[in-house]
Specification:
Blueprint (H helix, E strand, L loop, with lengths): L1 H6 L5 H22 L24 E4 L1 H4 L26 H9 L10 E4 L3 E3 L17 E7 L6 H13 L3 E6 L3 E4 L13 E3 L2 E4 L20 H6 L5 E3 L5 H16 L4 E4 L7 H14 L3 E4 L10 H9 L3 E2 L2 H13 L4 H14 L7 E3 L8 H4 L4 H13 L3 E5 L26 H15 L1 H5 L1 E7 L3 E8 L2 E8 L6 E3 L9 E3 L12 E3 L8 E3 L4 E6 L8 E6 L2 E2 L4 E7 L7 E4 L2 E8 L3 E5 L6 E8 L9 E6 L4 E9 L8 E6 L17 E4 L3 E13 L3 E9 L5 E3 L5 E4 L6 E6 L3
Parallel strand pairs: 1-2, 1-14, 2-5, 5-10, 10-11, 11-12, 13-14, 24-30, 31-38
Antiparallel strand pairs: 3-4, 6-9, 7-8, 15-16, 16-17, 17-22, 18-21, 19-20, 23-25, 25-28, 26-27, 26-29, 27-28, 29-30, 31-34, 32-35, 33-34, 35-36, 35-37
Helix pairs in contact: 4-5, 7-8, 10-11, 10-13, 13-14
The structure holds 1-deoxynojirimycin (NOJ) (2 copies) and calcium ion (2 copies).
The site of one 1-deoxynojirimycin (NOJ) has 4 residues, from loops.
């Protein structure tokens, strides 16, 4: 096009030569652009090679020990094994998961990711404080070894390669907060919470000469600080500021990533400092960009400021407890209405910067199964799955709930898989809806709009570009509703229910202006109607994953309409090197720019520009966790101490972006008027900082005197202590 324009008029020789030059540059550009860029790794947003983004995936959560025993020879012997006792091992293993992969149990349901129990070696004795074995995987002993009751390294790798060949990703649970129980009154624990590194003993809880653990008694969960540095029910609480522990966790997770793991569910993120976690996460993203989501347990539907902050600032997604509880209240216990549910969808939609990346569910191993909550009403379970699978967020099915398994509290909610029946209604509902997440991008990336609502019925629309999905659910199993006055962005035409009437849904007809002809939504019925656009010429970014990193890391941009010829990507005004490019997935390298938040934009080869996707966080460089501490900082009630400094991670001297409020109530670390905080900051960097006082209305008092300074080490952790300067 450019050469045509330049050749339109033929004036002087100079102009002709200039035109020729442009033609040549253009021709080179074409040749250059057509060179397949790492064609071998080029993939679409729906493929298993897309480990950074799970937007199009449906996760299936497995308690490995309770799923399927594929190899009885690896079962424990002795008192920790008892199939009639839900607190003991039952024999489930990776060979069993591999067998079910091969039998097609997951693919038949459209599941594209498995989240399995923590695979690391756990204690092999009974925890005397609760007479329980480590079948759940949360009592680690050696994060560098496999739990032999689940299988060997080769069993693990076979499971992964089998899954990958079927287009299924593997997510591991990982619990870096603690080892095993070591603290309960005067009780003696046989393994003392000891930590091993590939067989080598590093230290125990009582025998802790290295300072591997925090020693602050049980948490009372009263404050964030108390939750972080105290132990959770006596689980030996790892001290992540200890350089040995920090390095250990960075190396351990790499080992599992090397085995081919595609994602990580991080246990108990509320119980570890955000600073240490961000530094750990940054090391993970620099090693292999995978999808990471944390468990910040929350029993309600209301916003929790600390949880929201973590979801938006930590660099990882969270399990969406607010959404889960809202669905459970409206469709399970009946303690809230569909309007209440929609209000939570709206509120979370504005609280979470990346709402499509939060991981949704209707039940899990720490709460009652949905079937039990819904008084054994199967249709309630089916309808909850319809909402789960068509709402924003990455949906997770808890093993067995698709077979209507029951059970209220732990361990009754972790029973053996009741059956592998591929004819259960829930299995079929999931099997119809899960594949839609791969084919219609409205589910992965779309907006959510309420279209018709009352206390029993919720009809909502998801939309991305001209892709549209409309979901209608009537939770009331004795009243039908006449749906009139419904409008949609579905194009004119008649639509059949994606579930083919499995839950009673029929057709709808959309007339001019998006008006839907009046229809009846029967008692307890639900339906899903959809329109998938053919290829789009307008580029639209749906997601960017991860949303933080350091220059040189790879970032995955997903969406539609990028075209099949490479165009360009910018971070602010800076071009990013493209690694691979398809119509739905682009991989780029974070450019060397100064740290800060950037908007990402895609421009197609034909010059069409996408929406700008804001908020990408470029960190100052490789991160380490530093404990900043200030002594003698006295304050009036209601005033707190914050930290601010000359780097992006410390707010670039902007008091409104200062870190804090700092903690001041942990006896082994710091108690008022000493304040402290663990922060992820760049390694090998000379940092200037100050502490400030901020009251409830945001009034700021700066420390006087000159700035404090610290030069961070290149690896490990550090502590920077200062005295408050009046
Ligand atoms: C949360 C897990 O989901 C729960 O099951 C476990 O017991 C605790 N964290 C401790 O690891
Ligand atoms: C930023 C400065 O660089 C720092 O040194 C000073 O203490 C504060 N602003 C307050 O003036
Ligand atoms: Ca077994
Ligand atoms: Ca902790």
């Amino acid at each position: 096009m450019m050469n045509l324009q330049l050749n339109r008029r033929n004036h002087s020789l100079v102009q002709k030569l200039t035109s020729l030059l442009f033609v040549l540059i253009f021709a080179f550009g074409v040749i250059f652009n057509n060179i397949p860029v790492q064609a071998a790794t080029t993939s679409t947003d729906a493929e298993v090679t897309n480990t950074a983004s799970f937007s199009t995936d449906v996760i299936y959560q497995i308690v490995t020990d309770r799923f399927f025993d594929g190899n009885t020879s690896n079962n424990p012997t002795g008192s920790i094994f008892d199939k009639s006792n839900l607190q003991k091992y039952h024999g489930g293993d990776w060979a069993g998961i591999t067998q079910k992969l091969n039998e097609g149990y997951f693919t038949g349901m459209g599941v594209t990711a498995l989240w399995i129990s923590s695979p690391v070696e756990n204690i092999t004795t009974i925890d005397p404080s609760n007479n329980c074995a480590s079948y759940h995987g949360y009592w680690a002993k050696d994060f560098f070894k496999t739990n032999s009751y689940f299988g060997s390294v080769s069993d693990f790798q076979t499971m992964i390669s089998t899954a990958h060949a079927l287009g299924i990703k593997i997510v591991i649970d990982f619990a870096p907060n603690h080892t095993s129980t070591a603290e309960y009154g005067t009780m003696t624990f046989p393994e003392d919470g000891a930590l091993y590194k590939n067989g080598t003993y590093l230290g125990g809880f009582k025998n802790d000469s290295q300072g591997l653990f925090n020693h602050e008694s049980w948490t009372d969960f009263s404050t964030l600080e108390n939750s972080i540095y105290h132990s959770m029910y006596g689980l030996a609480d790892l001290n992540h500021q200890n350089a040995t522990v920090d390095t250990y966790m960075k190396e351990a997770i790499q080992k599992w990533l090397d085995y081919g793991v595609d994602g990580i569910r991080v246990d108990a993120v509320k119980h570890m400092s955000a600073g240490w976690q961000k530094n750990w996460l940054s090391s993970i993203y620099s090693y292999k960009p995978v999808f990471v989501f944390g468990e910040w347990f929350n029993g309600g539907v209301a916003a929790d400021a600390d949880m929201t902050k973590f979801a938006n600032d930590s660099g990882m997604s969270l399990l969406d407890f607010r959404f889960a509880n809202a669905v459970r209240n409206a469709l399970g216990s009946g303690t809230a209405t569909m309007k209440d549910l929609y209000n939570v969808v709206t509120a979370t939609g504005s609280d979470y910067e990346e709402v499509n990346d939060q991981v949704t569910f209707i039940d899990n191993h720490d709460m009652s199964r949905f079937m039990t909550l819904a008084s054994n009403n199967q249709r309630a379970v089916d309808n909850a799955y319809v909402i789960l699978l068509t709402s924003r967020g990455v949906p997770t099915i808890y093993y067995g709930s698709e077979q209507y398994a029951t059970g209220s509290t732990d361990p009754n909610n972790r029973g053996d898989m009741p059956s592998f029946n591929t004819n259960s209604t829930a299995y079929k509902v999931i099997g119809k809806l899960a594949p839609l997440r791969k084919t219609n991008p409205a589910l992965a990336y779309g907006t959510t709009t309420e279209r018709w609502i009352n206390n029993d019925v919720m009809i909502y629309e998801r939309q991305f570009g001209s892709n549209v999905v409309v979901t209608a659910v009537n939770r009331n199993q004795s009243s039908s509703y006449s749906i009139s006055g419904l409008y949609t962005n579905l194009p004119q035409g008649t639509y059949t229910d994606v579930m083919q009437g499995t839950l009673g849904g029929g057709n709808i007809t959309v007339t001019s202006g998006g008006a839907v002809n009046t229809f009846t939504l029967g008692a307890g019925q639900s339906a899903v109607w959809q329109y998938t656009a053919s290829s789009s010429t307008t580029p639209l970014i749906g997601n960017v994953d991860p949303m933080m990193g350091v220059a040189g890391n790879t970032v995955t941009i997903t969406g539609r309409g990028f075209g099949n010829t490479q165009g360009s990507v910018s971070f602010g005004t800076n071009a990013a090197q493209v690694v691979s490019w398809t119509d739905s997935t682009i991989k780029v390298i974070i450019p060397s720019v100064s740290a800060g938040k950037y908007a990402i934009k895609v421009t197609t080869s034909t010059g069409s520009a996408s929406n700008s996707y804001s908020g990408f966080e470029v960190l100052s460089g490789k991160q380490i966790s530093v404990r900043f501490k200030v002594n003698n900082a006295t304050t009036n009630y209601g005033t707190n101490i914050y930290l601010v400094g000359n780097i992006f991670e410390l707010g670039n001297w902007d008091a409104s972006k200062a870190i804090g409020p700092l903690f001041n109530n942990t006896s082994t670390i710091g108690v008022y008027p000493t304040w402290f905080f663990d922060v992820s900051v760049p390694a090998g960097t000379a940092i200037q900082y100050k502490f400030i006082k901020k009251d409830a209305s945001g009034n700021v008092v700066w420390e006087s005197g000159s700035n404090h300074t610290v030069t961070t080490p290149n690896t490990g952790t550090a502590e920077a202590t200062a005295n408050w300067q009046n």
